[in-house]
Structures are given as C-alpha cells and as structure tokens.
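Researcher: Re-running this chain for the archive, since the previous output was lost when a drive failed. Same request as before.
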Amino acid sequence: MNLQRLILIVFSLLSLQCWADDYPSKPIRLIVPFSSGGGNDAVARVIAQQLTTQLKQSVVVENRPGAGGAVGAETAARSTPDGYTLFLGGVGSLAVNPNLISKLPYDALKDFDPIVLIASAPSVLVVYPGLSAQNVAALIALAKKEPGKINYASNGNGSSAHIAAVMFTTMADVDMVHVPYKGLSPALNDLLVGRVDLMFSSIVAIIPQIQAGKLRALAVTGTHRAPLLPEVPTMAEAGLPDYQAGSWYGLLAPAGTPAAIIQKIHDASIQVLKQESVRAQLATEGAEVLGGTSAEFAAHIQAEFKRMQTVIREGRIQID
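Model: Regenerated structure tokens:
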C-alpha cells in the first residue's frame, strides 16, 4: 500500500469518526410501517421518547402504513444512510412479506443494517366458548375427528394471525378452514358471536374479552407464559413443544449507515431498554424487552426469514 493511499484511508476514518462524534445534530425520524394506535406504533413511541433523551435530539415517529408494511419498509430502505432515518422492523416486514410477495420493492436482508432487537410479544389462541374444546389437546382431537369442520379467523391472508394458525395446523396435523377478514375488528366480532370458532391474536387486543369470559384462552405462543395471562399455558406445555409464534420489534437503519453511528444508536437503545419504566410500558403492550448486539439481531432476522420461508411453503400460504 502506497503512502498516499494510506493517508487517504486515515483521513477517511478520521472524518467518519468526527461525523459520528457530532451525531446527531438534527432530529431523527423513526419510520413505523403501520398506522398509529397499534402495537408497532406503541412500541415505537416508547422507544422514541426515551431515545430523544439519550441522544439529546428529537426522535420523531413517522407512520407510513400500506401493503402490509411494505410501504414504510421501502421508504426507510431508500432513505439516505446517515443515521437520521431509522426503521421499526418486525416479522412481517422482514420475514413474512419477503417470502410472500413476489415483487417486494426492498430486500429485507440487504437493504437494512440491524441495530437492536427491542422486544417480542406472543400471541394467544382463543376459542368461542360454544366450542367444546377446553384445551389444546381437546381441540386437536376434535379437529382430527371432524376434519375441515372447524374454522379459524385472521385479520388477512399472510397476517401474523394467519401465520400462527398455519403453524398450528401443520404441527398438529389437522385440517381447519381459514376465514380471512379485512382487519382485526370484523374477525373479532364474528368470533364473539360464534360465526367462526377460533383465532390467534395479540394478547393486548383480546384480553378484555378473555377476562370477561366472552372467549376462552387455550395457549400462548411464546417460549414461556405471558405475564398478562399467567394462568394460560404455552403451546409447549399444551402439547406442541416446537411451536413458537408472535411478533417482534427491532430497530434498523438503511444499509450503508456508518458503523460508528449504528453503534451509537445501539448503545443508546440498550440504555433505554434497561429502564424499568420502559420495561413496564412495553409490558402493558404484552411485549418483553430483549436487547442484545447488532450481530445477534442480524442472525435473528436471518433465522426468522428461513423459518417463515418454511412455514409459508409448507402451509401453501398465498395472498389474493
């Protein structure tokens, strides 16, 4: 290596470090690929508020809904990689959509630099009280006895509820009929009156109906019992040891964002996640704080991408 090239590299590294030292010098936007009011938005606002304190610059949530999260993901992926655009990614935008939508306008594995895995949130399997099954084993037995008779609702083809149900039917080796709806509300309304038999849902969205006895909770989909429903067993406890589903939330930046800036955001995020107040706020959304390194988050995305690829292929999931 000649002296001139070495000097250029040294100056480049120094300029990048100075840039990182000055970062952030203006407000940061955090793109959420869903509308306000949902779980993704709630998690983003908790994190954004506390990152504002840690980074000493405003972190502003920007909702970009559409196409199951693809609109917001594309917006983030196409943004300048300077640390002033962040993205709240999840299983839908980073693992399901890439395996379900043939012409996705972004590459989930190449267009983002993972920063930190923020939290995960299990789902819950609920049934209409008129269904005779009192637990998962009884539900499986009933479905095997009457294949194709039991139906399940979801808030759309390829939604997390649909994915969770397909994983269940595949692992339990049962035949149930999918009834997709345009959103959670119409699906829940039909479940409450028995037009459909069961569904998977986020815990927060459905816990009032469980507590009121309007729906029966059979199992949660995480690796351990959910604090909001401590009396409800996990799928593993209920007889499906390899079953795991639900949502997760992570912070990413457009690919090519300087490593020093990624590290600065990561370190600030870890400080946020250590706060008991943040853990408590996320717990009210049914979410459990995770954390970890950027490399660990990247490995998690890769693993989830492959897992959803298998689920979608074996379940023959298609979108209309």
